[in-house]
Design goal:
The chain is an alpha/beta fold. It has a seven-stranded parallel sheet with strand order 3-2-4-1-5-6-7, with helices on both faces. The termini are far apart.
């Protein structure tokens, strides 16, 4: 009985979250905004990738960031240095952002700025390889990050994250020569569960591969249709 109740409760929570995510996406569509949700384990490099992205793209498109963290605004403060709006969301004990939390961020964006002037919202989710992939927040695409220091088996041990990803950044490639890691094996394990995902090896330290990532982001923004949705 307890297991049945837990399963039903989980389904109901995900259903309610999905309804909220659909509303969030409708807002983004109505404003002509593309939303990308960046997810990874702690320390894989989400914030530094966002720093490099803002430094490269904020001159050609208007970007806002929704920054999820359990307790601090340390990462949010790093990103504010790039002169873009950064809305910080502290999740407390929750290990992921959900659509209701992001709806609060959208509300702030709407009231503090003119959302129709933005092209891109980047969501930095809480560091976790499990929960963020299950809770949509209204994004148009999911981006997973996996650092070379995490090993080749993570896509198989945490398949949902990599199954849901539209793009995978293999980060910290500058460390690969010093590790016993096979990048081709990482890619093969990812494609075993998600054959169509875009895989981009990158290094925020050296800049290797980042241009391909910037171009992927630009394509998402260019491809996103603007829908006439009443919000």
């Amino acid at each position: 009985m307890h297991q049945t109740f837990d399963a039903a409760l989980g389904i109901n929570l995900l259903h309610a979250n999905q309804a909220g995510a659909d509303r969030n996406r409708a807002h983004f569509d109505n404003w002509g905004i593309t939303c990308l949700n960046l997810m990874s384990s702690p320390g894989a490099g989400k914030t530094v990738i966002l720093e490099r992205t803002l430094a490269s793209l904020s001159a050609e498109m208007k970007i806002a960031v929704i920054e999820g963290d359990m307790t601090t605004e340390l990462d949010a403060d790093r990103l504010r240095c790039y002169g873009v709006p950064v809305i910080a969301i502290n999740t407390g004990r929750s290990c992921h952002l959900d659509s209701k939390m992001v709806a609060g961020g959208i509300h702030r964006l709407e009231h503090e700025y003119d959302p129709t002037t933005f092209d891109l919202v980047l969501v930095e989710n809480v560091g976790n390889l499990v929960c963020p992939a299950e809770f949509e927040v209204g994004e148009h695409a999911k981006v997973a990050l996996l650092s070379v220091t995490e090993g080749e088996d993570k896509p198989l041990k945490y398949p949902i994250m990599f199954q849901e990803a539209d793009c995978l950044l293999i980060t910290k490639m500058d460390l690969a020569p010093y590790l016993d890691v096979d990048i081709s094996r990482i890619e093969a394990n990812v494609r075993q569960i998600n054959p169509d995902v875009t895989i981009l090896p990158v290094s925020a330290k050296t800049g290797a591969g980042l241009q391909a990532w910037f171009e992927w982001v630009q394509l998402q923004v260019a491809a996103q249709p603007v829908l006439a949705v009443n919000c």
